[in-house]
Amino acid sequence: MKKPKNTICLWYDKDAEAAARFYAATFPNSKVTAVHQAPGDFPGGREGDILTVEFTVMGIPCLGLNGGPVFKQTEAFSFQVATDNQEETDRYWNAIVGNGGEESECGWCRDRWGLSWQITPRVLAAAIAAGGAEAKRAFAAMMTMRKIDIAQIEAARRG
Q1: If 0-12 CB within 10 Å is exposed, 13-18 middle and 19+ buried, where does residue 122 land?
Q2: How far apart are the first and last CA of the chain?
Q3: What gap in Å lies between CA 138 and CA 141, rounded to an integer?
Q4: Whole-structure pTM value
Q5: Are 153 and 90 in contact (CB under 8 A)?
Q6: Which residue among 3, 15, 55, 133 has the highest number of C-beta atoms inside a 10 angstrom radius?
Q7: Domain 7-70 maps to which CATH number in 3.10.180.10, 3.30.70.260, 3.40.1550.10, 3.10.129.10?
Q8: Ramachandran bin of 35, using left for φ above 0, alpha for ψ from -120 to 50, beta for the remaining angles
Q9: 3-state secondary structure of 38
Q10: 3-state DSSP helix/strand/coil percent for the chain, to nearest 5?
Q11: pLDDT tens digits, residue range 87-120?
């Protein structure tokens, strides 16, 4: 299999394989494709430790690098997952938060490895894209939420 020309590299302290396996179990079109051990000692570990993990998240090629504690994840990078209904929104949100993650604001949450996720119902994106007063109302409603409540967004959009 030919490797993609562009891959997202995500830095983990030491749990890249656990993270990749969680993503593969949680999201469709996701899988772990390879696990590679370090051929020698490195700043974050020793020879034989897992160094990199190749995986996909919803079809996006990624490489998990067990680089050690030097760099931490920040909200400057996140996966944005478009959801079609409240059940799907709840399922992904609850999987991430319920597996040692934490809630944040406006549809954002962090997994237990510190990676940020935006669980964004398509209804919210459409409301904001509509512009005008309905976008303003939907946006104001979103600003009060953690996990997005689709019924409240739809009600705000209608006015």
Answers
A1: middle
A2: 52
A3: 5
A4: 0.94
A5: no
A6: 55
A7: 3.10.180.10
A8: beta
A9: coil
A10: 35, 30, 40
A11: 999 999 999 999 999 999 999 999 999 999 999 9
